[in-house]
Amino acid sequence: GCCGSDLKQYVFGGWAWAWWCISDTQRLSLEVMTILCRCENIETSEGVPLYVTGVAQVKIMTERELLAVACEQFLGKNVQDIKNVVLQTLEGHLRSILGTLTVEQIYQDRDQFAKLVREVAAPDVGRMGIEILSFTIKDVYDKVEYLSSLGKTQTAVVQRDADIGVAEAERDAGIRESECKREMLDIKFMSDTKTADSKRAFEMQKAAFSQEINIKTAEAQLAYELQGAREQQKIRQEEIEIEVVQRKKQIDVEEKEIIRMDKELTATIKRPAEAEAHRMQQIAEGEKVKQVLIAQAEAEKIRKIGEAEASVIEAIGKADAEKMKLKAEAYQQYGDAAKMALVLDALPQIAAKVAAPLAKVDEIVILSGDSNKVTSELSRLLAEIPASVHALTGVDLSKIPLIQKATGAQA
């Protein structure tokens, strides 16, 4: 004011004259201010703690009376101070409203919740010359998973309703599709039946025409084949006659060839073979005669040698017989003395033969406790010698008088 005047002039959206060092001028921003409201761990009417974030758009109103009120309260303050004042007011009303609502009301109808906050807070901020342009709930959440449980329940219900709707829709679609397919198949069967009747009539007419054509064609073919067979028969008859003539000529040629080959074989093989056979026969007969003569000579040689050996053996036998005869006559003349001499001459040889096994014995021990028994044992051994000699040589020493006397004395 000038000169103590308290007159105040409000200018917005224009200009005014102010004296320097006389007039006092202050500015107040009329731009829209964005305020972020956060309420943490606020319990609802059911006692569930929630975290709510809201965004408010406010500005100072331009009506003169309300502008004067705002100027009285906020001139000299910056924009941040104004935001803090409005923020405290909005947060207080937000907390009070949260305590009166349930979680479902807050979460499911955010617009109604924001509208309620705006309606309750508008008179208080309006008395400060501030207008709430908008207030919206940005985020609502909790840390006890209450909202997630509500979401799961609602999701399950929605999913169930969706599944039921899909199943009903598929059922209705399947029923309608089946009806359409049945109508389509009925029409198709009727069309196929008519088509089959037409085709059958066509095929029957075609078969009748084909039968007539085949009959005519078969008759023409049989006539053609019959005429061809007749012509072939004539041709074959001519060929047979030609073959007969050729065979006759060939037989004549073969007979002449056989005669020629017979003569050739006779000249080249049969005659030389006969000559060779005759030569071999003569050689074999000569060899046979040779072998026969050699065998006869050998037989004569063997016979002569045998006769000579027989004569020698006969002469030796006669000499031995004569010798034995003379010995026998001499033995008869000599008598017992001669026989004893012969036995005595043979005894050293007999003793040598008997003692030959004993020559390999180093020592003979006769066990006896009495000397008389040793003498008797020796006598017994001497008595058994003639029997042993008779068993070994066939000569009975017991018939010799000297031996009989010796053994008799021992006995």
From TrEMBL:
Pfam families: Band_7, Flot. Residues 70-252 form the Band domain. InterPro entries: Band_7, Band_7/SPFH_dom_sf, Flotillin_C, Flotillin_fam. SMART domains: PHB. GO terms for molecular function: protease binding. It is found in: Membrane; Endosome. Keywords: Endosome, Membrane. SUPFAM superfamilies: Band 7/SPFH domain. Its main location: membrane. One of its GO terms (cellular component) is endosome. One of its GO terms (biological process) is regulation of myoblast differentiation. It comes from the Eukaryota. Heterooligomeric complex. Belongs to the band 7/mec-2 family. Flotillin subfamily. This is Flotillin. It comes from Terrapene triunguis (Three-toed box turtle). The lineage of its organism: Eukaryota, Metazoa, Chordata, Craniata, Vertebrata. The gene is FLOT2.
